Amino acid sequence: MIDLHLIGIGTGNPDHLTAEAIRAMNGADLILLPRKGRAKSDLIDLRRAICAEVLTGPVWIVEFDLPVRDADAVYLDAVNDWHAAIAAAWATQIAMHLPDGGRLALLVWGDPSLYDSSLRIAGRLKDGGMDIRVRVVPGITSIQALTAAHAIPLSPLAGPVTVTTGRMLRTHGWPDGADTLVIMLDSGCAFEVLEPEGITIWWGAYLGMAQEALDQGPLAEAGPRIAAHRAELRARHGWIMDVYLMRREQIDGS
């Protein structure tokens, strides 16, 4: 039996770990750390730093190379192939390092249940016949980190919030009936497809990290500023993780 803990680690700040997450890490027989390429080397450095800070005893830590998604293939086909390759990589590491079973931990950015594929990949191991039990340790999400950094409530008074992706916003525009949007997994600046009048944006990148960047304001003014800053940050670091919230004025102007 493999007892797999998917541990939400927030946005890279060790202070974001819950006591439950720290207990799960210290109770693991093996922690797997994925390497995502040279351009994202500071991501594994953050995971290493988290382990160094919170582990109080000997826990076996193994690093492995994470497969890369084919950016030129049809999106859903590429993602399915990518997940299969990651599942195979996990299975290889498990066979090498936990052949008789044990407690395995994977450190997941944010929360494993929100726009992360770890649960789907773990499901592939189950479907492949592996004797595996999955436990989720929730973590602070980038949405929480964003609203906290800007000191704003997530939703308007008695109003709903729509969480979607940059791809969906770029393809379909602002969803009907929505007044507040949270946009995740935006590879560009999908807000640029919108008519900016009446929209306010709150944006954050590298939330909780030393290089955290924030901006906010009317979309017509803040949008171009964010786009330029985002491009500069991506060029400087080789990667970027950002999220933003947009709110549209109600008909009554509220």
From TrEMBL:
Residues 4-222 form the Tetrapyrrole methylase domain. It comes from the Bacteria. InterPro entries: 4pyrrol_Mease, 4pyrrol_Methylase_sf, 4pyrrole_Mease_sub1, 4pyrrole_Mease_sub2, CobF. Pathway: Cofactor biosynthesis; adenosylcobalamin biosynthesis. Pfam families: TP_methylase. It is an enzyme of class 2 (transferase). Keywords: Cobalamin biosynthesis, Methyltransferase, S-adenosyl-L-methionine, Transferase. GO terms for molecular function: precorrin-6A synthase (deacetylating) activity. Its EC number is 2.1.1.152. It catalyses: precorrin-5 + S-adenosyl-L-methionine + H2O = precorrin-6A + acetate + S-adenosyl-L-homocysteine + 2 H(+). GO terms for biological process: cobalamin biosynthetic process; methylation. PANTHER family: COBALT-PRECORRIN-2 C(20)-METHYLTRANSFERASE (PTHR43467), PRECORRIN-6A SYNTHASE [DEACETYLATING] (PTHR43467:SF1). This is Precorrin-6A synthase [deacetylating]. It comes from Sphingobium baderi.
